[in-house]
Structure formats: C-alpha cells, structure tokens
Specification:
This protein is mainly beta. Helix content is 0%, strand content 47%. The protein is built from no helices and eleven strands. Strands 2, 4, 5, 6, 9, 10 and 11 form a seven-stranded mixed beta sheet that branches. A four-stranded antiparallel beta sheet has the order 1-3-8-7, with no helix packed on it. β7 (65-69) and β8 (75-80) form a beta hairpin.
C-alpha cells in the first residue's frame, strides 16, 4: 500500500517535499517512482529510483527535483525545489515489483499506486 503526503500550495520558486509511505511487503526489490498529472495532460513520469540505486528524471525537473528512499525502504521522498507553475498537478507514488525496469518512466511498468497528492504552484 502506498500513501502520499506533503502536497500543498506554494509560490513559484518555492519548495515542497512529498513523501510516500510504503506498507506491506517491503523486503522484495521494488522499483519506485513519482508520476504527476496536470489538468488535460497525460500522466508523466517525473522521477524514478530502482533497487540498484539508479535514478531517472524527466528533463523538465532535472536539477530541481531529487528522489530518495530511507534505508528501511519504508518512505519514498521527492524534494522539489525552484517550483514552477507548470509543476502543478496531482503527484502519484508508484511501485513496480522489479529491482530495475527497462522503461522506468513508463506508467505501464508499475503495478501499485497511491491515491495522489495535489501540488499547486502560483506565479
């Protein structure tokens, strides 16, 4: 089970930190990701982290967002800095039962999803 938190409203240039609490069997090697969906846009893979420690980021967030996981692998975090209005949307945490993925930012790779948390960025 995945539960996101940390969303909210912030002004352009501000920061937010999203968390995803992971419950259930965390001993298996799960690859994790953050996706977002803005109004009238497709679901977009924002940041991913596999069990090898490799990360990927959408070009639009590189250098501003950082994905990480605690040592117990119970919490996935997305630190978002220098936020822009185009970063707004619903952010979802996702998990795939695989240590690594061929297409880590492809939504079809993931079997488990959280309910989402809203991020609003005002200009």
């Amino acid at each position: 089970r995945l539960v996101e938190s940390g969303g909210g409203s912030v002004q352009s240039g501000g920061s937010l930190r999203l968390s995803c609490t992971i419950s259930g069997d965390t001993d298996n090697g799960y690859s994790m990701a953050w996706f977002r969906q803005a109004p009238n846009n497709e679901l977009e893979g924002v940041a991913t982290l596999d069990q090898e420690g490799d990360t990927t980021y959408a070009d639009s967030v590189k250098g501003r967002f950082t994905v990480s996981q605690d040592n117990g692998k119970n919490t996935l975090t997305l630190q978002m800095n220098r936020l822009k209005p185009e970063d707004a949307g619903i952010y979802y945490c996702a998990a795939a039962q695989a240590r690594w993925l061929d297409f880590p930012r492809d939504r079809n790779e993931y079997q488990h999803w959280g309910q989402g948390t809203q991020v609003t960025v005002s200009s």
